[in-house]
Amino acid sequence: MIFQQAISLRERRRGFHLITAEILNALPQISEIKIGICQIFIQHTSASLTINENADPTVRADFEMFFNKTVRENDPDYEHDYEGSDDMPAHLKSALLGSSVTIPITNGRLAFGTWQGIYLCEHRNRGGQRSIIITAWGE
């Protein structure tokens, strides 16, 4: 069986935001799959997805701090700057983290490890709504 759902996530400020509950609410059919795979894909080039710590919010703050130090804004060497000083750094951050995550499904549940959750990584100051496609398949 294969299930797919497109969703629109509300606009969020720049940062790393847990969206696991929104993903699960959007595709309740995951509970019908005994063994399978779930892929979550973001249809944007200035935001990304990753899986990491879902309990301590300081982890998300540290992620933001690290990526802002690593990929700085206002670099005079960037040619792509007409959409704002946060745009090219957002593309680079997105390329580093990636546009999709894949999670096994076991007995109708996403088979996360302890303390894992799905992050929307918003790299723009005002990125707007974000479009996500969730696809789950299995037996």
Word description of this protein:
The chain is of the alpha+beta class and 139 residues long. The chain has a single domain, classed as Jelly Rolls (Sandwich), CATH 2.60.120. It is 23% helix and 37% strand. It contains three helices and eight strands. It has helices spanning 20-26, 57-70, 87-97, and strands at 2-9, 15-18, 35-42, 47-53, 100-106, 109-110, 116-122, 130-138. It has a five-stranded antiparallel β-sheet, covered by helices on one side. A hairpin with a 2-residue loop joins β5 (100-106) and β6. The longest helix has 14 residues, at 57-70.
**CATH homologous group name:** YjbQ-like
The tally of structural domains comes to 1
Distance between the termini: 6 Å
Structural class: alpha+beta
Low-confidence runs (pLDDT<50, min 5 residues)? none
Question: Could you please say which CATH topology applies here?
Answer: Jelly Rolls
Could you report the average pLDDT, rounded to the nearest whole number? 97
Return Rg in Å.
Answer: 16 Å
Please describe the topology of this protein.
Blueprint: E1 2-9, E2 15-18, H1 20-26, E3 35-42, E4 47-53, H2 57-70, H3 87-97, E5 100-106, E6 109-110, E7 116-122, E8 130-138
Antiparallel strand pairs: 1-8, 2-7, 3-5, 3-8, 4-7, 5-6
